[in-house]
Amino acid sequence: MTASASSLSGQSSGQRSPEHIRPEDILATAEALRWEIGADFHDRLVEDIYAEAARIASRAVTRPGEKPRFDLDRAIDRIVTSRTWGFPIMILLFMVVFWITIVGANYPSQALSWLLLDQLYPLLLQAAAAIGLPAWLTGILIDGAYLSTAWVVSVMLPPMAIFFPLFTLLEDLGYLPRVAFNLDHVFKKVGAHGKQSLSMMMGFGCNAAGVISTRIIDSPRERLIAIITNNFALCNGRWPTQILIATLFIGSLAPAYLAGLISALAVVGIAILGVLLSMAVSWFLSRTVLRGEVSTFSLELPPYRPPRILQTIYTSIIDRTIYVLWRAIIFAAPAGAIIWLITNIHIGGSTIAEYLIHFLDPIGWLVGLNGIILLAYVVAIPANEIVIPTVLMLSLLMLGNQGDYQPTGIFLELDSLEATKQILVASGWTLLTAVNLMLFSLIHNPCSTTIYTIYKETGSKKWTTVAALLPVGMGLLVTFFVAQIWRLFEML
Questions:
Q1: β-pairing verdict for 350-351 and 346-347
Q2: Cα dihedral angle (219, 222, 224, 227), rounded to 10 degrees?
Q3: Higher pLDDT residue, 32 or 277?
Q4: Interval 104-125 mean pLDDT
Q5: Helix or strand or coil: residue 391?
Q6: Where are the alpha helices (DSSP H) in 385-444?
Q7: CA distance linking residue 257 with residue 20, whole number of Å
């Protein structure tokens, strides 16, 4: 069979182009293949079909007098997709994942911080001084680009290296499609397509990938709803921010033995809030500007598969952890250099950063944030991963200018989570600031990659603008009301 097939391909490729192959050549090759297959080919094919049908029937059909066969997949699905236990199990599983991530990331984070900040940073300063590097260039390269990158690696790498393998494990096991199955009915109720639950689950990895995955939705109207609301699914770049802020400010409110659990509950609560916001906006759009009939589809649940631990770890570290970390680094290094420049270039006695921060501070106060955070979100439009590094760099450099910290080497203060919290508190952070940052991180505008992907998928500047600005407006509105209600209760 191989020889005959190759002879035909050789003839077509070596002697003539495929469009000039003669019909008699094809018939001659077919005849040769028929002889090689054998006369009993059709009999064997039919036997295999009947054998496969019998195997499927033996699993699905219960004959009179026989006991029902035990099917492990169905037994598990009766629990994890039930109306009673489906959602509690989903919340519990994600809470366990976040708890393991929060508790497990502390020690490697401290080790990386010690290596990159306590040990390597002074060596780089000594090397710069030894080769006679100008002070301004040392500041840009080492105090700006390097320290920003070092903080990203030391703080973001450990939680990502734990969270992404666990999340990928749930995905490979076949559980995430069950989550989509549980949410399917709810999405239909709010006027969205059931497959939006699948694109939302993809958005938990990357919103740009979630936007592309909406191609599985045939209806243009429902696909547009899924694209606009995908930003409310926490992406890779926002998970570390949520985990860090919850650990520093929410978990610290509880006793030490409950801190990890409380932090995990806070992150799960933010993720659930994102799902609820996605449904609320879908409901609003489907009854106003994108009104129409809801279409139906069939959702096939894959079988449960035994976890492939080594492959899962390799895939999650290479495809997710390293990818997100590299993306954070390539944006963090230039952002760090820019931040050092705007905090060290003086105009009229004040730095550029001080002018911008003082201008944004009144708006930040209204929404329970501050000017540093709002400026950080402007700088971090290219990538969500650098929001916290930008906030810390701005905070530390502003404190250094005020004389509260040394203007050089200030990142050495970040050798532990508690020191990180002290820097933020010294910059005026309160529990309200932390809560509203978690909320704004959930609701704010998509990153530049996602915005570009939305434009490529929709081909519409109007809908791209809506998808980019609607979350910003919602984020400011939600944080404004939370800040006012919070302050009202503080006054009582």
A1: antiparallel
A2: -120
A3: 277
A4: 82
A5: helix
A6: 387-401, 417-426, 431-443
A7: 77
